Amino acid sequence: MAALRSITSLPATASRSLLRASSSATPLLRSAAAAACTQIDQRRFDSAPAYGKPTTRIPDWGYYKSDKSEDSNKVIGYFMVGTMGALSAAAAKATVQDFLVNMSASADVLAMAKVEVALNSIPEGKNVIIKWRGKPIFIRHRTSDEIAEANNVKVSSLRDPQTDEERAKKPEWLVMIGVCTHLGCVPIGEAGDYGGWFCPCHGSHYDISGRIRKGPAPLNLEIPAYDFPNEETLVIG
Ligand code: FES
Fold this sequence. Notes:
Layout: H1 2-8, H2 12-21, H3 27-46, H4 70-103, H5 107-113, E1 115-118, E2 127-132, E3 135-141, H6 144-151, H7 164-167, E4 173-177, E5 188-189, E6 195-199, E7 204-207, E8 212-214, E9 226-230, E10 233-236
Antiparallel strand pairs: 1-10, 2-3, 3-4, 5-6, 6-7, 7-8, 9-10
FE2/S2 (inorganic) cluster binds at residues 180, 182-185, 199, 201-204, 215-217.
């Protein structure tokens, strides 16, 4: 036992030398030398400056260490992370919502998208011009003679071949965008060589179905999207 006590009190290098030399010693002696080395190594890690000049200064973080329990610290950590996540999600939602609301059409633009016309206010044989999306719209309440005239045309001879049926959902109501297809003037109604519309800018003549018959315009007057929700109402757009 005296030998064992002397081994554990030796310096590290001496203990290791003894451990190497004790390969031929008794098992009890070898285990005592190994325990001494382990103890010395452990002390070295715990307090390095005690074994030579330190090359770095390790600050003491003990002042900042929480004195609360681990569970308590976890609760605070989870609460902070959860709160920040909820606030970030709310901010992102508000940003996206504001962006989408800003991009959508305003009430006045939506109101301009469609125009409703009371058809019983337009007598037979008369034209009405309304404004839709900044363009003039021609609405003509055609007579039976005008409908017959529109159908009595050899379609294949037209510059822009279209039957009257293709241009009017109801034969008595002709609805067109009132913009000349040449350079964009607004034609005059009930004028021209074909009893329809005449564009004075360069002399284009349109018939009673709005089809180009004479002059430089290349196409018939355009037909907008429209519908008749009931017998007395026309909705354009
Ligand atoms: S713009 Fe109508 S004929 Fe030229």
